[in-house]
Amino acid sequence: EHGPNAVAAYRASGWGIDFPGAMVSDPFFRALGSDQIYSAITIDGPNKVFVPELIAGATLPWSTPDVYATDCLLFVGQNPLVSHGHANIVPDPMVTLRAVKARGTIVVADPRRTETARLADVHVPLRPGSDPAFLAYLVREALAAGPDVAYLGACADPGSGEAVRAQEATY
């Protein structure tokens, strides 16, 4: 009724080692005529280089949190106790996150009460798709509290703070 592109596939991180899955799904989608095939690269990956470009003016391969020095760690839609940090490889995430929790706070914003959410000090059960509004709220509150202008000046492009302020105003 809605054409072949009404059917889509999402190939998650393990796709590269799922030979039987490829042998079934690739011919199916070719026969169907759908070009709606997504992956961790198309959905999850672009922001990892795009955001550092916007903020710091440098396309970095991954933004890596300093889990050994932070005292407040926010995970949005992530479950590092299972994924081991995915791109931010954490060999023993339970030990690492318990150390963060011992000196500070862990917040998880995720619709599901994941393993990481159960460990966290605060679990915000967002509705699917509401991440941008939640993050815009956090940015607005940080701007209202007054950003550390000297710190931002040392690590971000001049004017990016105003760009963030202008973007936040659209929410």
Could you explain the architecture of this structure?
- The mean pLDDT is 83.
- The strands form two sheets. A three-stranded parallel sheet has the order 3-4-5. Strands 1-2 form a two-stranded parallel sheet.
- The chain has 171 residues and is mainly alpha-helical.
- The chain is globular.
- The longest helix has 15 residues, at 131-145.
- The chain contains nine helices and five strands; from the N terminus they run βαβααβααβαβααα.
- Strand 1 (9-11), helix 1 and strand 2 (37-39) form a beta-alpha-beta unit.
Give the structure's gist in a few sentences.
The protein has nine helices and five strands. The protein has 171 residues and is mostly helical. It is globular and about 55 Å long.
Mean pLDDT: 83
Number of strands: 5
Described by strand count, sense and barrel closure, the largest sheet is: 3 strands, parallel
Overall SS class: mainly alpha
* Unreliable segments of 5+ consecutive residues: none
Helix content: 40-55%
Which outline best applies?
globular
Calculate Rg over CA atoms: 19 Å
First and last CA, distance: 35 Å
Count of helical stretches: 9
Element-level helix/strand string: EHEHHEHHEHEHHH
User: Strand order within the widest sheet?
Assistant: 3-4-5
Roughly what fraction of the amino acids lie in strands?
5-15%
What are the main properties of this structure?
single chain; 171 residues; mainly alpha; 3-stranded parallel beta sheet; two-stranded parallel sheet; globular
Write the layout of secondary structure elements.
Layout lengths: L8 E3 L7 H14 L4 E3 H4 L2 H11 L15 E5 L3 H4 L9 H11 L1 E5 L5 H5 L2 E3 L6 H15 L3 H7 L4 H9 L3
Parallel strand pairs: 1-2, 3-4, 4-5
